[in-house]
Amino acid sequence: MSDQILALGEVLWDLLPGGMKLGGAPANFAFHCRSLGAEARMITRVGADELGRLVLDRFESRGMPVETIQIDSDRPTGTVGVELSQDGQPRYTIHEDVAWDRIAALESGIAAARSADAICFGSLALRAETTRESIAKLVSHTRPQALRIFDVNLRHPYVFPDAIAEALELCDVLKLNDQELVEIAAMFGVTAGVRETIEELSRRFGLKALALTRGVDGSLLFADGRWSDQPGLAVAVCDTIGAGDAFTAALAIGLLSGRTLDEINRHAGSVAAFVCSQPGGTPELPESFKRPAVVAEERSI
């Protein structure tokens, strides 16, 4: 049976210079989990508008369930203006007071949380109290053995230390990039080197695993006192949108399937590099990226 993975948070349209692309970190994560062979679904909220209908159409065309996508009759579907630098790095203008700011913890969502093998949520959706409270409630209904993944995506001015502290208490797997590590460390008064900071955050919040992505310098994983350091892969970058979300998807599936840290790290880095080579955040992943499950006795954490 495939892993059951649930994403919580924003779905939106990235308004790119070359056209409109479906985005939002949790949505990208869910799409990539599906491409990697998991049974993935998302709890989010869209407007009762044309962009909302297009979200539902896109989910259905990619084989994603839509039963847990809520419709808001008062707020529009989320959109984000995106400008790209010469090296493909995005700069975002995130529009406020949109449908995903009002995600509710409905019975259908609670049922999905109870059956999930892994649940993933990010920091941007925590900007609105309604959605923040719903995410906390949904995560609280997961089974004790389920992975609870917090994928940090700091988007100023929507960075709230109290909300991030609450999210860190909810999760047992943390994923962030090198710039976010610096900010998170400062929030919690950690002044140390990279590995010492990772160890301290893991200890303080009782994490099963922590993943640090470092762009061209690769990625670093830490779990149960063990490390995996993977160098970056050379790739012709189209844009970097969704690459971190693809990494998180491969990380989740690798942890669930019991792969070693090095195997997980290599695979996640390869998936993220492929996404960097394609336009937009959710290109269809090659079949070769799918990984078979292994027996429970071989689990890495």
Write the layout of secondary structure elements.
Blueprint: E1 4-8, E2 12-16, E3 19-23, H1 25-35, E4 39-47, H2 50-61, E5 69-72, E6 78-84, E7 90-94, H3 107-115, E8 118-122, H4 129-140, E9 147-151, H5 161-170, E10 173-177, H6 178-187, H7 194-205, E11 209-213, E12 219-223, E13 226-230, H8 243-257, H9 261-276
Parallel strand pairs: 1-4, 1-8, 2-6, 4-5, 8-9, 9-10, 10-11
Antiparallel strand pairs: 2-3, 6-7, 11-12, 12-13
Helix pairs in contact: 1-8, 3-4, 8-9
Describe the structure.
Strand 9, helix 5 and strand 10 form a beta-alpha-beta unit. A nine-stranded mixed beta sheet has the order 5-4-1-8-9-10-11-12-13, sandwiched between helices. It is globular and about 50 Å long. It is an alpha/beta fold and 301 residues long. Helix content is 36%, strand content 23%. The protein has one domain: Ribokinase (UDP-N-acetylmuramoyl-L-alanine:D-glutamate ligase, 3-Layer(aba) Sandwich), CATH 3.40.1190.20. The relative contact order is 0.15. The chain has helices spanning 25-35, 50-61, 107-115, 129-140, 161-170, 178-187, 194-205, 243-257, 261-276; strands spanning 4-8, 12-16, 19-23, 39-47, 69-72, 78-84, 90-94, 118-122, 147-151, 173-177, 209-213, 219-223, 226-230.
